[in-house]
Amino acid sequence: MAKIIPSLNRHTLARMTSGERRVAQTLAAVLEDDYLVWYDIPVARRRRYPDFIILHPSRGLLFLEIKDWKPETLKRLSKSEVTLHTERGQVLEVHPLEQARQYAYEVIALLSRDPQLCHQSGPHQGKLVMPYGWGVVLTNITRKQIAASMPEESRDILLPEHLMIYKGEFSENTEPEAFQQRLWDMFTYRFGQPLSLPQIDRIRWHLFPEVRIDAPLQTELFADPLQAAGEIEQTLPDIIRIMDIQQEQLARSLGEGHRVIHGVAGSGKTMILGYRCLYLAQTLQKPILVLCFNITLAARLRAFISAKGIGAQVQVYHFHDWCGQQLRTYSVDVPAGEGPHFERQVSAVIHAVEQGFIPRAQYGALLIDEGHDMQADWLKLVVQMVDPESNSLLLLYDDAQSIYKKKAGLGFTLSSVGIQAQGRTSILRLNYRNTREILSFAFGFARHYLDPQQSDDDHIPLVEPEAAGISGPAPVAKRLKSFADELDYTCACIRKWRSNGVELKDIGVLYATNTQGAQLSRRLEKDDVPHQWLGSRAQKMAYDAESDALTLLTIHSSKGLEFERVIMIGIGQMEDEGEQRQQSARLLYVGMTRARRYLLMASSGENEFSRRIVDVEGLGGDR
């Protein structure tokens, strides 16, 4: 079965015409699973909307226009225009073949500027590596009716046989080979070499800028594509990062209502949240609220949203900061008491909402990252902030990363806090962030401490991660004599990496306690190593992931972040007894999975974690 993007759920089917639905269901049923099909998604930078784009590794790229015209509707044809009789009278439209041809030529012109998508030698040097074509499906007109209404010589010019599919020539029961032959007869030439997976990803990277990872500003993404080819080639990356097909399909298929995404670390949950913000910012009038528990992650998300040019529409808050903002906006005082100020803040907001001092339904949509760290009364509070008219809510969580709670699992049902997502939960099992070696090491360590369960209270299975990333060097774990030795080792690794040309912004050093962070920060200052030490609330809120400096932060604060290279220190000083053992193990798992490719761990203590982590010498020849 072909992969249809967005998936053919109720929301997608509802916005299709009846003819588009029949074509989509036919494509899904009769094309094999190596076909990719996109429906009504804007392409490239001019944001044009072909009805269907079909991509096959061996066949190439095909653009289909679908028309539900009836025989009596079609009055006159030329090579460029169609005259239709409608309820509004005579209407002139672009000929659908010309429409599809324009889509194809614009996309092909864009793809042809990428050297990695062109033949490097031979008779086709400089030409695109894949065939392309276009065609039209008339869903309510038969081939016989067309033949009866115009001479053959006119049909050959205006509606060429090989470019047309008519009513009765497609359905879910159509013979697959016959239907596919109709599609590929729309191509004028063929190449024998199938596209590689990197080439397919590059095609998607060009067609759909919104699914790029670490993409530039939105104003750049949707700029005029007709600039000098040399300028475009200079900006093309050698290695692209893009959502995989499952992530893209999920991001485009979320639809309306309440949705839950339960995924392992590194499965792209936060990236999907960012894409969802881009989509909602274009469709909703009311502001969009994004909440998370980690201050540092909130700063990173805020920077991402701002870079996409939607900061005015999307408000990103650490949960307790949002509570404080609500109290200030509506002039509500925090009552005196013995509990911590942040807890009394939350209670004050809950009470003010109940009394009507703070209004409900302030936002067109609510998106919650790190849902596993949210308490029941917090969720019950923020769910009320969604406008019932739009009723758009997205919750993302990963139970294995729940480091702020004593026990695994949410501890309550989602329905009990007002989240109505039964049957609308997506599971992401594949980890795309870490190398296979890092993921295997991290999960192998964590499984000794994290209790496996069949499912949570909402019958959502707790997910064991599956590696989908590339292979890389084995993690390195060093047993040292003292914390001073850990500092020496850390600084030596940083010096070696810098001498090899590694950018400091790609390095994160994670520590267990603030005292350890302060010691390392002083040492880095002494060694003249630029770094961002996220040791205070203000420093966390000002975090800049693009700064040319190493990032130094607690393992707690690293949640939701990632670095090419991670060094973890202070492991031997972490608590490893009683209830705290599982909590510390979960925290270590989070820290390990922040590393995309290189993971170093230093330990000078004698706790159980130090003994569990086995020395692994060398790091692929690069310390």
Detailed description of the structure:
The protein has 623 residues and is α/β, with parallel strands linked by helices. The chain folds into 3 domains: 3-207, no CATH class; 246-428, Rossmann fold, CATH 3.40.50.300; 466-616, P-loop containing nucleotide triphosphate hydrolases (Rossmann fold, 3-Layer(aba) Sandwich). Helices cover 34% and strands 18% of the residues. The strands form 5 sheets. The protein has a 6-stranded mixed β-sheet. It has a 6-stranded parallel β-sheet with strand order 12-11-13-14-10-15. It has a 6-stranded parallel β-sheet with strand order 18-23-22-19-21-20, covered by helices on one side. Strand 3 (52-56) and strand 4 form a beta hairpin. Helix 13 packs across helix 14 (341-355). The longest helix has 17 residues, at 483-499. The two termini are 46 Å apart.
Strand content: 15-25%
**Total number of helical segments?**
21
Global structural class: alpha/beta
Give the distance, in angstroms, between the N- and C-terminal Cα atoms. Answer: 46 Å
Number of E strands: 23
Q: Tags for this entry?
A:
623 residues; alpha/beta; Rossmann fold; 3 domains; six-stranded mixed sheet; six-stranded parallel sheet; disordered C terminus; DNA_helicase_UvrD-like_C
Secondary-structure map with pairings?
Elements: E1 3-5, H1 10-14, H2 18-30, E2 36-39, E3 52-56, E4 60-67, E5 74-77, E6 81-86, E7 89-94, H3 96-111, E8 132-138, H4 143-149, H5 152-158, E9 164-166, H6 176-184, H7 197-207, H8 218-221, H9 229-235, H10 245-252, E10 258-263, H11 269-283, E11 288-292, H12 295-307, E12 314-318, H13 319-329, H14 341-355, E13 365-368, H15 376-383, E14 392-397, E15 425-428, E16 430-431, H16 436-446, E17 466-467, E18 476-479, H17 483-499, E19 507-511, H18 514-526, E20 531-533, H19 537-541, E21 550-554, E22 563-568, H20 579-592, E23 595-603, H21 608-612
Helix pairs in contact: 10-11, 13-14, 16-20
